[in-house]
Design brief:
502 residues, alpha+beta, Helix Hairpins, Heat Shock Protein 90, 5-stranded antiparallel sheet, 5-stranded mixed sheet, 11 helices, 16 strands, binds adenosine-5'-diphosphate
């Protein structure tokens, strides 16, 4: 596995190299074409040089003209001796032709070639048109590099015996420039590649530096104990800044849920520890040989009480755990609340009588909700028993069921009890929270602080809200607001417009 930095570097460099090769290739082709053109021009210049030399020589009266019909050579036209001397001093490959395309003069250098090559040059040269295209004669000689590029020129000043001059330059001259280019490219390509590799690696490294810093920071944070730390977000308003902010939000959520989990586990173990210790003491007392029959049954009864307390706690924990997991199946059906509230009122009246508290139900407006009847009953009973638990003798507890805004229904429990202080109010729905732990455990009220958490879960699962208003020493009001089903004309019930569903 290569790092992103390495992969980016290779990709950059590879791309650059491919571009360089493509560019070099295109340049080579273009250069070759233009070099051939330039060579053609150079060949014409050569030919003109020969022409001018002839014209100058004629003007100086040195080699006036070409001897025609030379008897010695058997009727073939030939240059004068003087002309041959002048032309013999000229370098390069050239031919001088007469109007019948016969060879008048062939340059010294050309005459050094093989006879067959000389013949080919003559054959191609005589076919060339003045001012027309150039032609390449293939010659198998290394320094020629595949041949001569021939061009033909003429000038009337040379007199009637000379029709034109054909001059040639070795192709090697034309090939040289593009070859030089390729050579240079081959030389500098590795260098460029090396430099670009280095530059790309450096740039990628710079680009990834903040990412690496971020990774190190995240690694340091996610060891579980440093969740209070946050990533620096001041880097820039770019993708990394946004990533850091997103991660920070995630870490904050993790911190909150880790904290909650830790507290929950600690609280749950603590709550189980006490009844277990009592249970142990009770059983030890019961099995002690010296314990009398009466004491033994008292001890066992106490043990039974502790067991049922623990069973309650485990039951509540299980409910919350399932609720957290979203595994709790609510059996939703249209439920009329009036019968449930009346039933809860009956139970509460009995409990109230035992506690010396008056429980009343002054207002009941029926309404249906889509929900789980058993859970709703548990919810209402929970709030009422709390009201009775936390109201001293002689107090009052009042329940009401009433419509709100046509599409919701409210169940409220008002008591004249001890109330909750403003500082404590935000925590009442937290798991295991109790206004006074020590006292509530010691007294017969002794709940676990899970009732309201479960109540809130039930309300939320029904798409409703649970609110509390309270003043210390004055009493509290717990209000459950649930979305109501409206009765349609045909008697069927549908959720009220605007009501949420849980
Ligand atoms: P518990 O099992 O302790 O009653 P709850 O979750 O039902 O647990 O309640 C949490 C705490 O909220 C209680 O311990 C109590 O301090 C406070 N509380 C709940 N209901 C009332 C109320 N009606 N009046 C005063 N305090 C209340």
């Amino acid at each position: 596995m290569y790092s992103t930095r390495t992969r980016l570097t290779t990709a950059y460099a590879g791309l650059l190299f491919a571009t360089m090769i493509a560019f070099g290739g295109a340049l080579y082709v273009a250069r070759r074409a233009s070099a051939a053109d330039e060579l053609g021009i150079e060949s014409r210049k050569e030919a003109h040089l020969v022409l001018n030399t002839i014209i100058n020589a004629q003007a100086n009266g040195r080699a006036l003209t070409i001897i025609s019909e030379n008897p010695v050579s058997g009727g073939v036209t030939q240059p004068t001796q003087a002309m041959s001397e002048v032309l013999g001093r000229l370098p390069g490959y050239f031919l001088v032709l007469d109007p019948q395309d016969r060879l008048l003069y062939s340059s010294t250098t050309l005459r050094l070639l093989d006879q067959t090559d000389q013949d080919t040059v003559y054959a191609v040269g005589r076919a060339l048109v003045v001012g027309g295209a150039t032609a390449t004669v293939p010659i198998d000689q290394n320094e020629m590099n595949q041949g001569l590029l021939l061009a033909a020129v003429s000038d009337t000043a040379t007199g009637p015996n000379i029709s034109r001059v054909v001059a040639g330059l070795p192709m090697s001259t034309a090939r040289l420039a593009p070859q030089l280019l390729v050579g240079t490219m081959f030389l500098i390509a590795p260098l460029v590649l090396l430099i670009s590799l280095g530059a790309a690696y450096y740039l990628a490294g710079r680009a990834f530096k903040p990412v690496e810093l971020l990774i190190n920071e995240v690694e340091a944070i996610t060891d579980g104990r440093s969740l209070h730390r946050r990533l620096p977000t001041d880097t820039a308003d770019d993708e990394l800044g946004r990533l850091a902010e997103t991660l920070n939000r995630m870490i904050a959520r993790l911190q909150a849920s880790f904290g909650a989990l830790r507290r929950f586990t600690a609280d749950a173990s603590h709550e189980l520890k006490t009844p277990l210790a009592v249970l142990r003491a009770d059983i030890e007392r019961a099995i002690h040989p010296g314990t009398g029959e009466g004491d033994r049954s008292v001890a066992l009864e106490e043990a039974m009480q502790e067991i049922s307390r623990m069973a309650d706690l485990v039951d509540s924990l299980l409910t919350l755990a399932r609720a957290d997991e979203g595994r709790f199946d609510l059996h939703r059906a249209p439920v009329h609340l009036e019968p449930i509230v009346r039933d809860v009122n009956e139970t509460a009246t009995i409990l109230g009588e035992e506690a010396g508290i008056t429980v009343t139900l002054p207002l009941v407006e029926d309404g249906a909700v889509l929900g789980d009847a058993a859970r709703l009953r548990q919810l209402f009973l929970n709030l009422v028993t709390n009201a009775i638990k936390y109201t001293p003798r002689g107090g009052k507890v009042e329940m009401t069921l009433s419509h709100r805004n046509n599409n919701s229904i409210a169940f409220a429990v008002r008591d004249t009890g001890m109330g909750i202080s403003a500082a404590d109010l935000p925590y009442v729905f937290e798991r295991f929270w109790r206004a006074d732990r020590v006292r509530s455990r010691a007294s017969e009220r002794g709940g676990f602080g899970l009732g309201l958490a479960i109540a809130q879960w039930i309300v939320q699962a029904h798409g409703g809200t649970l609110t509390v208003q309270s003043r210390l020493g004055r009493g509290s009001v717990f209000t459950v607001l649930l979305p109501m089903l409206v009765e349609a004309a045909d008697g069927a019930e549908a959720p009220a417009a605007g009501a949420q569903e849980g």
